[in-house]
Predict the structure.
Amino acid sequence: MRRGRRSLKSGRFLPNIDVDQWLADHPDFLIDCPHQPGNLRITRDACAKRHATANEPRWANIGAEPFHIFVFKMNLVPCRKCELGASLAREAKIKAA
Ligand code: SF4
């Protein structure tokens, strides 16, 4: 059965949220990363995941190939010894338990 097309103009697919207002109401949702370039703002959960990923044992086994994985590894270098990421990863672990 073929589904009918939905027009984007109908507004059904557009989120009905004011992002700036939502962020103003949830000031702790994003943190400013002190180590990544470009004044990165990231969620607390994503930061904790990056720290955990950067400290997985398999991280050390990643070589120069495939190149896109190597680039991802290099992107995680600042997260390996980041104290902010470590504290957020600890919080996330406690929350999950
Ligand atoms: S772990 Fe540290 S370096 Fe990595 S995103 Fe979080 S704050 Fe930034």
The first helix runs from residue 19 to 25. The mean pLDDT is 87.
